[in-house]
Specification:
Layout: H1 2-30, H2 36-83, H3 92-98, E1 99-110, E2 113-122, E3 126-127, H4 133-148
Antiparallel strand pairs: 1-2, 2-3
Helix pairs in contact: 1-2
């Protein structure tokens, strides 16, 4: 995020610099120091660069704002989790603190078993995909292979 903020500052400084250059070009053109054709070419180039910078600044600001919100959400979630560590009993108050909502889907009847999919949306984090047993075993195998290699 530091790097993104630094680049954002550089882009904003470059936009200001282009404004000063365009003002100087206009003055030079008005005083007859440069030709009209040269002024048009240079101003078009600088204006194009300025438009591109304005677009990249808007995207960077949106990305930074989203990253900062994610950081705040994560801090809230971690604070909530820390408050609920070393639980002896799961009370309705703790469940309401940790979970934002639970979606229960229609039942799926495959292979003589009735299964119901449940999505649990945690506070400040959202839906977390919990891997099944096969995925956990394959992840553990990958980790073991990486350590041995």
């Amino acid at each position: 995020m530091k790097n993104a903020k630094f680049k954002l500052g550089q882009s904003k400084a470059r936009v200001d610099e282009i404004d000063r250059v365009l003002t100087k070009l206009y003055e030079d053109n008005a005083l007859g120091k440069i030709t009209d054709e040269r002024f048009e070419r240079l101003s078009a180039t600088y204006e194009k660069e300025q438009r591109e910078l304005a677009e990249s600044i808007a995207k960077a600001e949106a990305n930074i704002a989203e990253a900062e919100q994610d950081n705040v959400d994560l801090k809230i979630f971690l604070k909530t989790i820390r408050a609920c560590t070393d639980l002896k009993e799961l009370t309705p108050e703790i469940v309401n603190t940790l979970i934002k909502r639970i979606d229960v889907h229609n039942p799926d009847e495959k292979f003589k078993h009735r299964r119901v999919k449940i999505d649990i949306y945690f506070t400040a984090v959202g839906l977390i995909s919990i891997p099944d047993e096969k995925e956990l075993l394959s992840l553990m195998d990958e980790i073991r292979n990486e350590k041995s290699a």
